[in-house]
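Let's study a protein:

___
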Amino acid sequence: MSPFKGQTGLRRILNAAGYSLDGLSAAFVGEAAFRQLLLLNLLLIPLAFYFEVSRGERALMVGVCLLALIVELLNSAVEAAIDRISLELHPLSKRAKDMGSAAQFVALALISSVWAVILLG
């Protein structure tokens, strides 16, 4: 058992919330892509409530936007872990970073396609 998993109950939940806020703060301060995607979400999510679409369609429009933020957080985490291991150029490091970037590309394509299908019907 990990020595870092010692907390239980409410203390564990509070610690987890603090770690999550630390992660969001680190992404906002250190990742331009996260800030750009956050700005896009601040535009698109209210816009989803402007259009006359069903509740399910609106939930999907908002959900794919939030999914792209999640993917960006995971992509940034992969990049940070790779850089922590070594800044040396290595084919496996490049592959990991490229795959994270590809995941974000797919998430952005998902936003575009979902919004297009819903709005253009």
Summary: Residues 32-120 form a domain with the Helix Hairpins fold (CATH 1.10.287.3610). Helices lie at 9-30, 32-50, 55-85, 91-120. The chain has one domain: 32-120. The mean pLDDT is 94.
